[in-house]
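Subject: Sanity check before I submit

Could someone independently write out the structure tokens for this chain? I want to compare against mine line by line before I put it in a report. The sequence has 92 residues.
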Amino acid sequence: IEALACGTPVIGWPHGSVPEIVEDGVSGWIVGDVASAVRAVGAIDRIDRRLCRARFEARFTADRMAGEYAEIYARMLSGRDSARREPGARCA
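---
Independent answer below. Compare away.
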């Protein structure tokens, strides 16, 4: 996320949060082996750094994330969220 915030394309393995953060061919490359990683390094100039920053702005800024949390809490408090459970209820 920090790399995208700086407009730096990311090359990563398809593990952890990489598939959720990196848009393959758009904000970086998701690779499956060393040979693919080497090819991705050679192709890194095809990734638009401004687009990396724009993807970060659209998905990961503190203001955006805080706004989404506020919306979730508001839905939960109003009873419009199906995930709301009664106090002491167990998760199924």
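---
OP: Matches mine. For the report I'm noting this point. Helices lie at 2-5, 18-21, 34-42, 49-59, 62-78.
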